[in-house]
Amino acid sequence: MRIKTDINDYIFRGYDIRGIYEKDLDEDVAYTIGLAFGTKLVKERKNTTVIGYDNRSSSPFLFKALAKGINETGVDVINIGLVTTPMYYYALKLFKTTSGIMITASHNPKEYNGFKMSFNGIYNTYGEYIQEFKELVKSCDFIQGKDGKIITKDIKNDYLDYILESISFGPKRLKVVVDCGNGTTSVIAKELFDRLNIDYIPLFFESDPNFPNHHPDPSVPENLIHLKETVKEVKADLGIAFDGDGDRVGVVSEKGEMINVDLLMVIFIRDLLPKLKDKRILFDVKCSKALKDEIVKLGGIPIQYRTGNSYLRAKVVEDNIKFGGELSGHIFFNDKFYGADDGFYAALRILEILTNTDKTISELLEGVNKYYSTPEIKLSTPDNIKFEKIEKVKQYCEEKGYKTLAIDGCKVLFDDGFALIRASNTGPNITLRFEAKTEERLNEIRNEFLELMKTI
Predict the structure, then answer these.
(1) 25 and 39: one domain?
(2) Looking at the structure, do residues 148 and 130 belong to the same domain, yes or no?
(3) Terminal CA-to-CA distance of the chain, rounded, Å?
(4) Domain boundary residue among 319, 346, 365?
(5) Which of 312, 340, 365 is the endpoint of a domain?
(6) Judgement on whether residues 319 and 245 belong to the same structural domain of the protein
(7) Is 394 part of a structural domain of the chain?
(8) Active site residues per annotation
């Protein structure tokens, strides 16, 4: 294994390091990043870190290289093995470590992998801090020649006990379809759902890094086809899906319809807000105005923020906000939980609500203001020009006199809808989402900005 001096700058993204295995990210790159990570910890007088990894084929190989680099700086590695990202978050809390790395590419295609890093043991690093770390990696100015050790720990049972201890199911016994999409949640889902007083039908509970049935990203409607069909076929109360590393959740109603996460959040805040003294609710720029309307209607204080679980988790922790979420499926409970985005825990909270009511999940959404919106639209755009294109969108809006919000890309605010155009932090894409009060107006807004994107 050797120090890599020509690492691709574009793997250092908005809230993690991510690239294609053996092209952008191989064992030499992982070893080099390990040396940099350990060097940073030593300079901060830290001597222990936690590493976990997902079920991708490349993850064990990257772990060995990464841990070797870290050990050579004299830092010990607590190896928690094959885990979901929320299990890794729990390990940081359990072992009271102030740093860690989760090896995962989340919902990206199988050829990708990456590193989510924490330098405080609470939330993942992001933005400028990742860029600062990149400079350390590329400097190759590392502490070496020392001998840290690997400490292997199994946290599975502790984790399951922890996420269940604050949940109180009611008397209603639910029928639930659960889709793991062959992702990392497969390694623990059966043990969790066997503990619950529900009838559940498992889909794709076999761990398979090739994701043979569908891509494990529940925010994309096409990935929920099996779940929707099964919910209707078995007459289930709802369907639940998880992403590849388990920090996001998707939900299908008893009618077999996808419930967007911003509307799922409406169900949570209707349950939560009457119980909370602190009425602030955090959500990302992609969410529907229906969510903001509902927060205001219930006496809450809406806080709109940039997309990205690292940014939102940091905001939840630093400002002590009791609940938040983003459209992609990251949901943060900080009321009787510790503020981490955990797909299993979010699923438990919706089950808790449903077992304590006679209403269906669809009935829990009655009275929400109606808007028409598109799913996320992804335009493949090279990393080296995507931010330049966003600046051109901002310039266009300024020339048109449009009101905009610039906390994350460009969100164009109309009286009857919005257009959101932003650079993805996880891949070479520009993502767009549109919303309006009528379908006709939605089409007008969408067509205007899709045509614009063709010309810039």
Answers:
(1) yes
(2) yes
(3) 44
(4) 365
(5) 365
(6) yes
(7) yes
(8) 106
**CATH assignment of the domain containing 431:** 3.30.310.50
CATH of residue 126's domain is: 3.40.120.10
Total number of domains constituting the chain: 3
pLDDT one digit per residue (tens) for the chain, 456 residues: 899 999 999 999 988 999 999 999 999 999 999 999 999 999 999 999 999 999 999 999 999 999 999 999 999 999 999 999 999 999 999 999 999 999 999 888 899 999 999 999 999 999 899 999 999 999 999 999 889 999 999 999 999 999 999 999 999 999 999 999 999 999 999 999 999 999 999 999 999 999 999 999 999 999 999 999 999 999 999 999 999 999 999 999 999 999 999 999 999 999 999 999 999 999 999 999 999 999 999 999 999 999 989 999 999 999 999 999 999 999 999 999 999 999 999 999 999 999 999 999 999 999 999 999 998 899 999 988 999 999 999 999 999 999 999 999 999 999 999 999 999 887 789 999 999 999 999 999 999 999 999 999
In a domain, 242, yes or no: yes
Task: Say yes or no: 37 and 71 in one domain.
Answer: yes
Q: Are residues 335 and 306 in the same domain?
A: yes
**Residue 408 and residue 306 in contact, taking contact as beta carbons nearer than 8 Å:** yes
Domain co-membership, 257 together with 346:
yes
β partners of residue 18: 114
Task: Tell me: do 138 and 195 sit in the same domain.
Answer: no
| Prediction pTM value | 0.94
The answer to whether residue 381 is domain-embedded is: yes
| Reduced 3-state DSSP string for the chain | CCCCCCCCHHHECCCCEEEEECCCECHHHHHHHHHHHHHHHHHCCCCEEEEEECCCCCHHHHHHHHHHHHHCCCCEEEEEEECCHHHHHHHHHHCCCCCEEEECCCCCCCCEEEEEEECCCCCCCCHHHHHHHHHHHHHCCCCCCCCCCEEECCCHHHHHHHHHCCCCCCCCCCEEEEECCCCHHHHCHHHHHCCCCCEEEEECCCCCCCCCCCCCCCCCHHHHHHHHHHHHHHCCCEEEEECCCCCCEEEECCCCCEECHHHHHHHHHHHHHHHCCCCEEEEECCCCHHHHHHHHHCCCEEEEECCCHHHHHHHHHHHCCCEEECCCCCEEECCCCCCCECHHHHHHHHHHHHHCCCCCCCHHHCCCCCCEECCCEEEECCHHHHHHHHHHHHHHHHHHCCEEECCCCEEEEECCEEEEEEECCCCCEEEEEEEECCHHHHHHHHHHHHHHHHHC
Q: Range of 329's domain?
A: 158-365
Same domain as 381, residue 346 = no
Look at residue 1 and tell me if it is in a domain. no
